[in-house]
Each structure stands twice: as structure tokens, then as C-alpha cells.
Design a protein that fits this description.
The protein is mainly beta. It has a single domain, classed as Lipocalin (Beta Barrel). The protein has one helix at 2-21, and strands at residues 26-31, 38-47, 50-58, 84-92, 95-103, 108-118, 121-127, 134-141. Strands 1-2-3-4-5-6-7-8 form an 8-stranded antiparallel beta barrel. Strand 7 and strand 8 (134-141) form a beta hairpin. The longest helix has 20 residues, at 2-21. The radius of gyration is 18 Å and the shape is globular. The chain starts with a helix and ends with a strand. Residues 1-21 form the signal peptide. Residues 26-140 form the DUF2147 domain. Pfam families: DUF2147. This is DUF2147 domain-containing protein. Keywords: Signal.
């Protein structure tokens, strides 16, 4: 009987750790889909049941304090570091969607969705209109 309880306890711990490790939340290294170079560290966090992402660090030499010159509205000429670039993703099965992503390079916002490819790889898709017309980046767990 004790043996069965021990096994059940160990299995419960393993399942618990597996479920916690498979999350979009945490810090991610963004990889430029055009150059393949690491661009920034982004933190994805939860607030009121939705997911948000903000830039914690810019990795390109000489651009650590860059401003969002192309942004519109309240983000224009504000530091990119610390800027929220994804606002309010909602969970829909294995996908997080129904939000916009900001490209600080162009100042443009796109519809987006993200999915966890595996524990260490996040697929981030920005698009206009339909998800077929857009760009995909893969972010790596920091």
C-alpha cells in the first residue's frame, strides 16, 4: 500500500512539473526571422487572465537605448526597452490569440497569435487580415 502511494505521489509531482514547464510565460529570446540574429529578451506575463509581452532588453550592440521613432500615439519616441508589444492575448486551446503585436522597427501593429512549439520554442505569428498573410518568428526560452 505504501509503495502504491509513493508511486502515485511521484507521478503527481512529475505531472505537476511537466504542466508548469509547458507555459508561454517567462523570458524569451526573440530571433529575427530575416537575419536569424537574436534581437531582444521579451517577458511574457499574465494579467487578469490574459497574456502580455514587454521588451526587457535589446541585444543589438549600440541599440540598447533605442527609441520607437516609427511608433504612433503614446509610444512615439519612447524607449523600446520596457515597452509592451503584445496586449491581451487570450487562451484558445493550444493557441493564444485575439490581440495585437507591435513591431518597434516599423511602428506597425499586427494581429497575432502564439503557440508553444515545445518547452523551449514559441511560435509568434503576426499578420494582416488572415493568418496566411504575415510573418512568423520563433522565440527561444531564455
Amino acid at each position: 500500500m505504501k509503495k502504491h502511494l509513493s508511486i502515485a505521489f511521484i507521478l503527481a509531482l512529475i505531472i505537476s512539473f511537466s504542466a508548469n514547464s509547458q507555459s508561454i510565460f517567462g523570458e524569451w529570446k526573440t530571433i529575427d526571422d530575416e537575419t536569424g540574429k537574436a534581437k531582444s529578451i521579451v517577458e511574457i506575463y499574465e494579467q487578469d487572465g490574459k497574456a502580455y509581452a514587454k521588451i526587457k532588453q535589446l541585444l543589438e550592440k549600440g541599440k540598447e537605448d533605442k527609441l520607437c521613432e516609427e511608433c504612433k500615439g503614446s509610444k512615439k519616441n519612447k524607449p523600446i526597452k520596457g515597452m509592451v508589444i503584445i496586449n491581451g492575448l487570450t487562451k484558445d486551446g493550444d493557441e493564444w490569440n485575439d490581440a495585437k503585436i507591435l513591431d518597434p522597427k516599423t511602428g506597425k501593429e499586427y494581429k497575432c497569435y502564439i503557440t508553444l512549439e515545445n518547452d523551449n520554442k514559441l511560435k509568434v505569428r503576426g499578420y494582416v487580415g488572415f493568418a496566411l498573410i504575415g510573418r512568423t518568428q520563433y522565440w527561444m526560452k531564455k
